[in-house]
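G., the chain you wanted modeled:
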Amino acid sequence: MGRVEGKVAIISGAARGQGRSHARLLAAEGADIIAIDICADIETNDYPLARPEDLDETARLVEKEGRSAYAAIVDVRDRNAVAQAVDAGVAEFGKLDIVVANAGIAPLTKGGPRQAFVDAVDVDLVGVLNLVHASLKHLTAGASIIATGSLAASLASQNTSGMDAGPGGAGYGFAKQVVAHYVNNLALQLAPEFIRVNAVHPTNVNTAMLHSAPMYAAFRPDLENPTREDAELTFPFLNAMPVPYVEPEDISEAVLYLASDAARYVTGQQLRIDAGGTIKAVAWSG
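Predicted structure as tokens:
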């Protein structure tokens, strides 16, 4: 028996990166997967997002694990489209047990347009709200909601990273802070129904979001056109453990735990998979 055997999970941002990793591991542990992703670029986000063939590959990997996949191209900023995809997935599988609100962008461009702030907030915060709220009517006792936050939720008010990521970076940090607060408050509301709500907060993760020109520039504002090698010299500075980044699978293991019955009494938690980034940046408060 897998740790989520017989459960159904919906995952946003599932076409690649952390979302694909979550889909693959949850499927390997027995869950059927509703996978959604925009599969298109957003103008202010200066690195390419996933494509339809990426979402198809996620579905293939789920099916390779012996589970079923329902995939839909959806922009999480569109509440009606999200609700339609949720309802269609539930019609396909008959229920919904796990919601993984993972879709995110990082339009980190110094001196970028103010629209980048709007887009970061709309995807990274409003997208979380849209998926969770569209899913709520399908959830019953034992269900688990998991939101992807970020180490940035801790750093946004600390000004310790030395990064200059423009309006998009400001929007990203704001969105992740509010996601953490939202998880805390929603968990309290749903606890009497035995529906759990938690967040995972990664540090840098080895995905296409991290390995992109805007991210390299944010980490190396001293260079005009920094390379991956230039940026990787500074990646470890965020963390207490001397590593540049963690792997998507490291986050997926935390998602799996929170999705499983092993975490049946775990709710309202901010689970940091951040190589000690938070404890390095934020003073102990007791």
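The chain has ten helices and seven strands.

Shout if anything looks off.
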